[in-house]
Amino acid sequence: MSTVWLLIKREFVERVRQRSFIVATVLGVVLIIGLALIPSMIAGFASSTSTKFVVATPDALTTIAVEKSLETTGNVVEADPTIHPTTGDLPPSLKTKLMRGRYDAALIAYRDKQHRLAFAYYPKSASALQNADEVRSSLQRAVILADISASQRDAVSQALKFPFDVHSLNARYKNAEDEFFSQGIVYFLLIILYIAVITYGMQVATGVIEEKANRIMEVMIGAARPDQLLAGKIFGISAVALLQLTINAIAAAVAAIIAGVLYGSSPSGEQALTLAQKTQTAQQQQLSHLIATQGLPHVPWVTLAFLIVFFFLGFFSYAAIYAGIGSLLSKPEEVQQYSMVFMAPIIAAYVLAIFALQFPDLTVVVWGSMIPLVSPLLMFTRISTTDVPAWQIAVSIGGSLLAIWGLTLLAGKLYRVGVLMYGKPPRPSEIWRALRAHT
Amino acid sequence: MTPEVTLDVDNITKTFTNVRAVDGLSFSAKSGTVFGLLGPNGAGKTTTIRMVLDIIVPDSGAVRWQGKTVDGDIRRTFGYLPEERGLYPKMKVRDQLMFLAQLHGLSAVDAKKTIEDLATQLSLTEHLEKAPQELSKGNQQKVQFIAAVVHAPPLLVLDEPFSGFDPVNVEVVKNSIRQLVAAETTVLLSSHRMEQVEELCEDVCIIDRSRAVQSGNLREIKRNWPDRFIRMTQLPNTDFLKDFPGASVLPSRNGYLDVKLPSGHAPAELARAAIASGPLDHFEVVEPSLNDIYLAAVKPEQTT
User: Fold this and answer.
1) Angle at CA A421, nearest 5°, toward A415 and A422?
2) A30-39: pLDDT as tens digits
3) Which CATH architecture has domain A52-130?
4) Which 3 state secondary structure label does DSSP give B129?
5) Which domain-ending residue is among B222, B243, B267?
6) Which residues of B touch A22 (CB under 8 A)?
7) FRET label pair with A160: which of A14, A131, A421, B201, CA 20 to 30 Å apart?
8) Residues B22 and B158 both lie in one domain
C-alpha cells in the first residue's frame, strides 16, 4: 500500500506543480465565471431596459388595444395620436421621432385592402429586432378584440384566458420543470464525464507513454509491480482531475452567487435562459447555466450521490483502458494518431445515453445499464429518469468495480509487455503472444 | 573470505520472432567482485541483462540469485543503471532520488542521509535541487548512478555506466564502484570501454552473436592465452621475423616494435634472433590486453 501511496503522491505533486496545470486551472476558472456571468449580464441589461415603442394606429380604440397588448409584457408604449396610417409605410415624422428619440422600435397599425388590421414593425435596436416574434404574438389579442362588438368583447376576453391546470399523475415528475432537471442532471454527468475522460484519461495514456519514451519505466519496473505503477498513475491523475474539477465547481458556485446578487436570481435566470435559447444552439449550455444559476432543487440527494458514484466508476474504467492502450504505444505523438481508438468507447456510451434519455425502459437500455463501460452513463440515465430495481443498480456498480479491477490488471500486463515494445505499435497477434508469455 | 557465487546464469536462451538473441548462455558472478559482460552491439548483452533483471523471461534456462530463481520480489532488491537515461526530466533530482529510495523501502530519514552521502561522494550536491533536464549529460549519468545504488542493492547491474563521462568523472564513478565491491556488492558491468573493464573486473564473459565466446577469470584467460605479445626496441631490420611463421607486427606504439607470437614459438628464440639482427635495449613479454582478447574472440561482422 505504501508503494502505491508513494506513486500516487509523486504523480499528484509533480503534476500540480507544473506550470501547465496552474495556467489551465486559472483559465478554467476565468472561463467558467465568464460564461456564467455574461448571459446574466446581458439578461440583466435586457430586463432593465424594456423595449420602448412609438405607435401609430388608425383610431383611438386600436391604440388602446395595442397599448394593452404590448404593456402586459413590460414594454413602454407611446402612441402618436396625430398620425393615422393607411399603409404599412413608416411616416416621415414618425421616422424622425424614432431616429432622434430614445425609442427602440416603431409599430404601425393600419387597415389593409380587405379592411383587416395589419401591422408593420420597424425595430431600431438589436433587442427589438430579436423580439419581433414576441411582439407579433402579443398583438394577437389586440387583433382578435379589435373587430368585435362591445357586447362580445367581455366573453372573448374571458375565453382568451381560460383556466388550464396541470395535475401530474407521474410519480416522478410533479411538473415539467422536474422532468427538465432530471434530464439536465443526466446531461451534466455526460458532459463532465466526457470532459474528464477526454482530458484526464488522455493524460493517463500520455503519462504511460512518456515514461516509456524516457525509459524511466525500466528503472520503475525494478522498484514496483506493474499494477502498482498503473494504479499510482490512474489514481494520481484522478486526484489531479478531482482537484481541478472541484476548483471549477467552486468557481461555478461563486459565479452563480454573484449572478444572483447582481441580477436577482430567479427572474434573471429565466431571462438568461430564454436569451440563451435564442443565442446558443447547444442545449447543454443552457442546462449547465440553469443548474449554475438555479441550483439543483428538483433533484433528490440520492440521485446526486449516484452521480458521484457513477462518475468515478466511469472515469476509472476508461482510465484503465487508456493506461492499457498507452502501454502499447511508444511516442506521445501516437496518441493523436490513435485518438479515434481512445474516443470511440466514450463517444459510443455518450450516444447511447442520449438515446436512453428518451427511452429509459427499453430492453437494450436496461441490459446496457448493467454492462461495464456503458453502464455508468446508462444506469445513471435510468436512475434519474425512471424507477430502477435495486438489484440492477447493484449489478451495475458491482460489474463496473469488477471491470475496473480486471482492466487494471490487464493494463498492468500490457504495461509489463509494453516496457520492451519500442518502435512501431504491435499487431494484435503480438500483444496476445506477449500476454500469454507472461501469464 | 572467499567470494561466494551469488548470481548464477544457467544456460539461458531467448528467441524473439525468428531471431535468437541469446543462445545457451551461462556464467556466474561472485559477491564482492565485478563481472564484465562484453560483446559487440547486438550480440545479446542487453537481452541478457533484461533476463537477469526479470524484465523479460528466458525461453529456457534460469537466472538464480543465491540459489533462488529471480522473481519480481528478488529483482526489486537489485540496482540497475540502464544504458539510456531513465529519469523524470522535470522532477527535482532530490525529490526523484527520495522517491526511488522510498519505493525501495528506505525510510525518509535514511533516504535523505544516503542521498546526501552519495551526492557528496560524486560531487553532485549543488545539483540536487535542479531538474535532470537542466543538468549536463555527465551529471545526469551521476544521478542515474545514485538512483541505482541508493538502496544499497546486493546486485548492481551497470549498462555502459561510463558513457558521457570525462576522465575525471570516470575515476569518481570507478571509485564508487570499488567502494560498493568492498562492501560485498556483486556488480554486473556491461561496457565497451576495455580499459575500465580490465581494471575493475575479475571475471568476464565475451558474447558474440548470442553465444559466449570467451568466459572465465580474466587473469587465467590472459595466462592461458596461446599468443604471446612481445614488446622490444624498434629494430631497423625486421627480416628475422620471417623465421617465425604466423608472427605479426602490431601497430607500433611509443616507438616500440610490438609483435604477436603464436603458440609453438618460444619468446627466447625470438629474443636471440632479434639480438642477432641489431642492438636490442628492451625485450618484454607482455600479457595480452583485454582488447587483444576481445578482438581475437569477436569475429568481424561478415558482409555478404
Assistant:
1) 125
2) 888 888 777 6
3) 3-Layer(aba) Sandwich (3.40)
4) coil
5) B222
6) none
7) A131
8) yes
Chain B interface, best mutation among A11, A214, A219, A438, by max B CB count within 10 A: A219
Interface of A with B in 405-434 (CB under 8 A): 419-420, 430
**Residue B176 pLDDT > 70:** yes
Tell me which residue of B5, B17, B91 sits closest to B59, measured CA to CA.
B17
Q: Look at A68-82, A345-359, B178-192 and tell me which has the smallest mean pLDDT.
A: A68-82
d(CA B118, CA A315): 42
Q: Please list the alpha-helical segments (H only) found in A72-166.
A: 92-100, 126-130, 132-146, 150-160
Residue A267: the pLDDT is: 41
Judge whether A22 is closer than 8 Å to chain B, CB to CB.
no
What's the CA gap between B283 and B228, in Å, rounded? Answer: 13
Q: What is the C-alpha end-to-end distance of chain A, expressed in Å?
A: 23
% of chain A at pLDDT higher than 90: 13
Sort out which chain A residues have CB atoms less than 8 A from B156's CB and list them: none
Of B176, B112, B171, the closest CA to residue B149 belongs to B176
Residues β-bridged to residue B13: B60
| Residues B214, B233 within the same domain | no
Q: pLDDT class for A289, splitting at 50, 70, 90?
A: low
Q: Is beta strand A52-56 parallel, antiparallel or unpaired with respect to A105-111?
A: parallel
C-alpha cell at B302: 561478415
Q: What is the mean pLDDT of residues B204-212?
A: 90
- Please name the amino acid found at residue A110: Y
Q: Which structural domain, as residue segments, surrounds residue B255?
A: 226-286
Query: Which residues fall within 8 angstroms of residue B175, CB to CB, at 6 or more apart?
Result: none
pLDDT confidence band for B207 (50 / 70 / 90): very high
CATH number at residue B261: 3.30.70
Query: What integer is the mean pLDDT of B95-121?
Result: 94
Cα(B2)–Cα(B254) distance, integer angstroms:
40
**Does A130 have pLDDT greater than 90?**
no
Residue B93: is it exposed, middle or buried by C-beta count within 10 angstroms (0-12/13-18/19+)? buried
Q: Taking the domains of chain A in order of start, what are their residue ranges?
A: 2-43+174-437, 52-130
* Residue found by looking up cell 555502459 in the block: B160
Of the candidates A435, A92, A130, A73, the one whose C-alpha atom is nearest the C-alpha of residue A278 is A130
From chain A, the residues in CB contact with B91 under 8 A are: 10, 14
- pLDDT of res. A15: 92
pLDDT by residue (tens digit) across A291-315?
555 554 556 788 888 988 999 999 9
- Whether residue B216 sits in one domain with residue B233: no
Q: How many domains does chain B fold into?
A: 2
Within the 8-67 window of chain B, which residues sit less than 8 Å (CB to CB) from chain A? 17, 50, 53, 55-57
CATH code assigned at B183: 3.40.50.300
Question: Are both B159 and B241 inside the same structural domain?
Answer: no
Q: Which residues contact A275 (CB under 8 A, 6 or more apart)?
A: A39, A42, A43, A46
Domain identity same for B37 and B170:
yes
Give one DSSP letter per residue of B195-210, joined into a string: HHHHHH-SEEEEEETT
Chosen for mutation from B103, B149, B156 (greatest number of chain A CBs closer than 10 Å) is: B103
What is the arithmetic mean of pLDDT over B177-192?
Answer: 94
ipTM of the predicted structure?
0.80
Please report the pLDDT score of residue B303 as a whole number: 47
Alpha carbon separation from A207 to A175, A198, A204, A339 (Å, rounded): 47, 14, 5, 15
Q: Check pLDDT > 90 for residue B73.
A: no
Residue whose grid cell is 562484453: B38
Q: Which of B222, B239, B272 is the last residue of a domain?
A: B222
Question: Is residue B142 assigned to a domain?
Answer: yes
Inter-residue contact A312 to A321 (CB < 8 Å): no
Q: List A123's β-bridge partners, or say none.
A: A105
